[in-house]
TrEMBL record:
It is a multi-pass membrane protein. It comes from Hymenobacter volaticus. This is TonB-dependent receptor. Residues 1-19 form the signal peptide. Keywords: Cell outer membrane, Membrane, Receptor, Signal, TonB box, Transmembrane, Transmembrane beta strand, Transport. Belongs to the TonB-dependent receptor family.
C-alpha cells in the first residue's frame, strides 16, 4: 500500500494524452472587472467542471464538440455561455438585480459575497465533495472537510446511535443553528444521554437531508444569535438546496469497512449502500423551477467488540455501528408570478429505521431467563424515526423593498423498540420484543422580512428588518406495559425481585408521559454600511420573548477593512443566547446504566418535577454568551490565499446533565430510595465556560503538467475551559458532586483541541485524484475508575481516484482511513460505551473502501 500513491499519480500522468475534447480557458470577472475567485465552471450535462483561481482564471478540457459552460458564484447570477475554443471572458452580474438573489449566511445583504463578508464563512460545494470522497451522509462529509465541525457515530448510547450529534467550534450540538435555504430547521426530539459528544444536549439531525439534494453548505463560524435567533452561539450551518433544471443526476455508491476486530472470519463489514436521483424542470419564463431528489441509504452493522484489552474479559459481545435504513424525498421549487414576485416552497420527508446494539446480558446474569436465552442475549434497540418539513413563502419586490413572507413547519418523531430481549419478571413467559415508547418535537414558524439596498448612501447601505412567531410542541409517550412493569407478585422480597421492563432499554412509563408547548416572538433590525469602498460597518439587534422563561435582547457589531487589494481585516463582537429546548425542560425517564459493568437503575427527573423542586433546583433559563472574532484574509500572489480568524466565546448558565446522585447520598438518598432507584440526575444551568480558538485556511493553486493541483491546509485550534460550576438549593456547595470532573470531561471532549486538514486535489482531463490527511489531537476522558483516559493524536489518510468513462458517466474509487487507524484502546469495563474506546476523534471502524458511479445528463 505504501507504493500505491506514487504509482497512481504516475499512472495519471502517463494517460493524460488520451483525454478527448478541446481545451478551454478563460477568466471570470464581476461587473466592475475584478476577478471572481472560486467561481464554479461546469460543462453542462456532464460531470466535467473546475473552479477559478485567485486571479479568476480557469482551464477546462471540454468533452463535447459544442460545449456549453455554466458559470456560477455566490452573490452572482449564474450564466450559461457557449464555448468553442480559445480564451473566454465571462462577466457575472450581481444577483441582487432580481429576486433570484442569493443571501450568504452571516449577511442579509443580497450583494455580499463570501470574500467580503465581515464574518468567516466556509462554503462547501457538495457536488465537488461527494464526487471524490467516501463519506455518504452530511455529517460525515462535513467531519472530514470542515475542521471546525465534528461528528462521530455513537454505539451503546441509546437514541444517539440513531441520530449522530454534531458540534461546531467545540461547543454543544444545540449551540449551532441549522438553516435550510435560510429558514430555521427544526431540531431532533432526542436528548443525548450517553457518549462523549452532546451529552445532555438536543441538536439538529443533518442526515435527514440527502446530500444529493444539496447545492452547497455554508458554515458561518461566528456568533449570530442577534441575526438569526436562539442556538446560533457557535455559528450557523445553512444548507442550500439544488435548483438546477434540465439536468438528471443518478448516483450509486457502495463501501465497506475492513473488519479487523470480529469473532468470526469476515473480512469486511458495515456495508454502506446509497442510491439517489435528482432532476429539475423549468417553470414559467422568470427562472421558475421544480427540483426533486429521491435518496435511499442502507448501512449494516460493524462489529468491534473483539479487542485484546480487558483483563476481566469483554463487557459486550456486540459493539459497533448500528444498522440503518434511510429513505428520503426532498423538493425545492419556485413559481414565478411576475418579474417582481414569486412563490417558493421546499422541504421533504425522511424515514429511518435502525437496529443498535445494547449491553450484553450474559448467561449467568440475574436479568436473564436461561430457558429463553441459555447463552445470554444481546438486546437490540430499534428506532422508527419520521422527520418532515415544509416551507412555503412569497417573495415580492415593492417600493424598492424585497419582502419575504413564509410559513415553516417541521416535525421529528422518534419511537423506540427493543427486540432480542425479555422482561425478567415475566420469567419463561416473557415476550422477546417490546414497544418502548418515544417522543416527538414539532415547530411552526411564521416569518416576515424586508430588505433594501441604498446604493447612493455613501458607498452602499443595506437595511433589513423582520419578525417571527414560533410555536413548539413536545410530547413524550409511554411504551407498552410489559416494557416497563415489574410482574413479581406482591410481597416478593426485594432480594428476590426480578428486573422490570425490557432489558437493554426499559420503556417509558405513563408517569413519564407529558405534552408541552411554548411560543416565541422575535423581531430584528440589521444594517450594513459601506463607509468607503474599503471600509464596511455592520450591526444587528434582536429581541425575543419566550412564553416559558421571558425575554432577551442581543446585538452584534462587525467591521471589515481592506488594507490593500490583497489584505483585509475583519472583526465582530456579539451577545447571544440559547433557549433550553422543550426536550431538556420536560424529558424524564427511568433507564438502565452500567457502572463498572454492573446495571443500575437511574432516574432522570424533569426540570419541574417534585424531586427537583424539593432539591431547590431552579427552572431552566436561557444560556447567554459573549463572542468576539478577529481575522484577516489575504491573497499572497496570484495563486495563494490565506484566512486567519481568532475567536473567543464565553457562555454563562450552560444547560448540562448533572452527575448522578446515589441512593446513599446524605441529602437526597431517602427520596431516591422511596422511588426505588439507585441513582438520579437532572438538567440544570450549572456551568460557565470559555472557548479560545483559531481557524486557519491556506489555499494554493498550481498548474502541474496539463492538469491543475488545488492544495488546501485548513485547521481549527480550540481550548474550552470550565470556569465555574454553580449549584443551588439543598445541593449548594457540592460542585464536584453536582457536575464533577467526569461530566466536565464529556463537555470538553465535544471536539479535539485541534483538527488539521491537508488536501491535494488534482484534475487532469478525465482523470482526478484526491489525497487528504486529517490530524485529530488528543482527547481526554475519565473512566469509571476515575482515572484519566488519554486518546493520543491520530492521523487519517483518504485517497480517491476518479475517471470520466464517458461525457456523462464518472467512476470513483478509493479508501477513507487508508492506514486503518483506531483511537487508543482502553479496558471496555471502564469506558462509557463498554467498548475499547469511546466515540472520539475519527470514529472506531477503521479502513473504509468505496466505489461510486455517477451519471449526469
Amino acid at each position: 500500500m505504501k507504493h500505491f500513491v506514487p504509482i497512481a499519480l504516475m499512472s495519471l500522468t502517463s494517460v493524460a494524452a488520451f483525454g478527448q475534447g478541446q481545451a478551454l480557458s478563460g477568466q471570470v470577472l464581476d461587473a466592475a472587472g475584478k476577478p471572481v475567485v472560486g467561481a464554479t465552471v461546469v460543462e453542462k450535462g456532464t460531470n466535467n467542471g473546475t473552479g477559478t483561481g485567485p486571479d479568476g482564471r480557469f482551464t477546462l478540457r471540454a468533452r463535447s464538440q459544442s460545449p456549453k459552460l455554466v458559470v456560477s458564484s455566490i452573490g452572482f447570477a449564474s450564466q450559461e455561455v457557449n464555448a468553442s475554443g480559445g480564451t473566454l471572458t465571462v462577466r457575472l452580474a450581481e444577483a441582487s438585480t432580481s429576486l433570484d438573489a442569493v443571501q450568504v449566511v452571516g449577511s442579509r445583504s443580497q450583494n455580499r459575497s463570501v470574500t467580503d463578508s465581515p464574518s468567516p464563512v466556509d462554503v462547501i460545494d457538495i457536488r465537488e465533495v461527494t464526487a471524490k470522497t467516501g463519506q455518504l451522509d452530511v455529517n460525515q462529509l462535513l467531519q472530514f472537510v470542515a475542521p471546525s465541525f465534528n461528528s462521530n457515530r455513537q454505539t451503546g448510547s441509546d437514541g444517539a446511535d440513531h441520530v449522530d450529534p454534531a458540534t461546531l467550534r467545540g461547543l454543544g450540538p444545540d449551540q449551532t443553528l441549522v438553516l435550510v435555504n435560510g429558514k430555521r430547521q427544526h431540531q431532533s426530539a432526542l436528548v443525548n444521554l450517553f457518549g462523549s459528544r452532546g451529552r445532555g444536549n438536543t441538536g439538529t439531525d443533518l442526515n435527514v437531508i440527502p446530500a444529493a439534494s444539496i447545492e452547497r453548505i455554508e458554515i458561518l463560524r461566528d456568533g449570530a444569535a442577534a441575526q438569526y435567533g436562539s442556538d446560533a452561539i457557535a455559528g450557523v450551518i445553512n444548507i442550500v438546496l439544488k435548483k438546477s433544471v434540465n439536468e438528471l443526476t443518478v448516483s450509486a455508491n457502495y463501501g465497506a469497512y475492513d473488519a479487523k476486530y470480529r469473532f468470526d472470519d469476515k473480512n469486511f463489514d458495515g456495508g454502506n449502500f446509497n442510491a439517489n436521483v435528482n432532476y429539475g424542470i423549468g417553470v414559467g419564463q422568470n427562472g421558475g423551477f421544480v427540483n426533486a431528489t429521491l435518496d435511499y441509504n442502507q448501512r449494516e452493522h460493524t462489529q468491534r467488540a473483539n479487542v485484546p484489552t480487558s483483563p476481566d474479559g469483554i463487557a459486550r459481545r456486540q459493539y459497533g455501528d448500528p444498522e440503518v435504513k434511510n429513505t428520503a424525498a426532498y423538493l425545492n421549487a419556485k413559481f414565478p408570478l411576475s418579474d417582481k414576485a414569486h412563490i417558493y416552497t421546499f422541504g421533504g420527508v425522511n424515514k429511518r429505521g435502525g437496529d443498535a446494539y445494547a449491553w450484553t446480558r450474559f448467561a449467568d446474569d440475574d436479568r436473564n431467563v436461561p430457558s429463553i436465552y441459555p447463552n445470554g442475549f444481546d438486546p437490540i434497540i430499534t428506532s422508527d424515526i419520521w422527520d418532515g418539513s415544509a416551507v412555503a413563502g412569497l417573495r415580492l419586490l415593492a417600493g424598492g423593498w424585497d419582502f419575504d413572507l413564509s410559513n415553516n413547519f417541521g416535525s421529528n418523531r422518534f419511537e423506540y423498540g427493543v427486540r432480542n430481549t425479555l422482561n425478567a419478571s415475566l420469567g419463561a413467559n416473557s415476550p422477546t420484543s417490546f414497544n418502548a415508547g418515544g417522543f416527538q418535537l414539532q415547530q411552526n414558524v411564521i416569518g416576515l422580512s424586508a430588505t433594501r439596498n441604498y446604493k447612493t448612501v455613501l458607498q452602499g447601505l443595506n437595511l433589513a428588518v423582520g419578525a417571527e412567531y414560533r410555536r413548539e410542541w413536545y410530547s413524550l409517550f409511554a411504551g407498552e406495559e410489559a416494557s416497563y412493569r415489574n410482574y413479581d407478585p406482591a410481597g416478593t422480597p426485594d432480594s428476590l425481585r426480578k428486573a422490570a421492563g425490557s432489558q437493554g432499554f426499559p420503556g417509558y412509563q405513563p408517569t413519564d408521559a407529558i405534552k408541552a408547548k411554548r411560543s416565541n416572538i422575535g423581531a430584528y433590525a440589521d444594517a450594513e454600511l459601506s463607509l468607503t469602498q474599503r471600509w464596511l460597518l455592520a450591526g444587528a439587534l434582536r429581541y425575543e420573548h419566550y412564553s416559558d422563561f421571558g425575554s432577551t435582547l442581543n446585538f452584534k457589531v462587525a467591521t471589515r477593512y481592506n488594507l490593500t487589494e490583497f489584505l483585509t481585516l475583519r472583526g465582530t463582537y456579539s451577545t447571544g443566547f440559547r433557549a433550553p429546548s422543550l426536550a431538556q425542560i420536560n424529558f424524564n425517564s427511568t433507564f438502565t446504566n452500567f457502572i463498572n459493568g454492573q446495571p443500575v437503575e437511574v432516574l432522570l427527573a424533569r426540570n419541574n418535577s417534585a424531586v427537583t423542586q424539593k432539591l431547590g433546583i431552579p427552572r431552566l433559563k436561557q444560556e447567554t454568551s459573549n463572542s468576539a472574532n478577529i481575522g484577516l484574509t489575504s491573497r499572497l500572489g496570484s495563486s495563494l490565499s490565506l484566512t486567519l480568524d481568532g475567536y473567543y466565546i464565553k457562555i454563562d448558565d450552560r444547560v448540562v446533565l448533572t452527575s448522578q446522585f446515589s441512593s446513599e447520598d446524605p441529602v437526597i438518598g431517602a427520596d431516591l430510595q422511596a422511588l426505588n432507584v439507585g441513582q438520579a440526575q437532572f438538567f440544570a444551568n450549572a456551568a460557565s465556560t470559555e472557548s479560545l480558538g483559531l481557524d486557519a485556511v491556506l489555499s494554493h493553486t498550481l498548474t502541474l503538467g496539463s492538469g491543475r493541483l488545488n492544495s488546501t491546509l485548513a485547521a481549527n485550534f480550540n481550548r474550552l475551559r470550565i470556569n465555574r460550576v454553580q449549584t443551588s438549593g439543598r445541593l449548594a456547595g457540592r460542585e464536584d458532586d453536582f457536575f464533577g470532573p467526569r461530566e466536565q470531561a464529556f463537555v470538553k471532549a465535544s471536539a479535539p483541541p485541534s483538527k488539521i486538514n491537508l488536501t491535494f486535489d488534482y484534475q487532469m482531463g478525465r482523470f482526478g485524484a484526491l489525497l487528504r490527511f486529517v490530524r485529530f489531537a488528543e482527547v481526554k476522558l475519565i473512566g469509571y475508575d476515575a482515572k484519566e483516559q488519554v486518546y493520543t493524536p491520530r492521523v487519517t489518510t483518504d485517497l480517491s481516484l476518479s475517471y470520466a468513462l464517458t461525457d456523462h458517466l464518472q467512476l470513483s474509487a478509493g479508501s477513507s482511513n487508508l492506514f486503518n487507524q483506531y483511537p487508543t484502546f482502553f479496558d471496555p469495563q471502564l469506558t462509557e460505551t463498554g467498548g475499547a474506546w469511546d466515540p472520539v476523534q475519527m470514529g472506531s471502524n477503521g479502513r473504509f473502501y468505496f466505489a461510486k458511479l455517477q451519471a449526469r445528463f
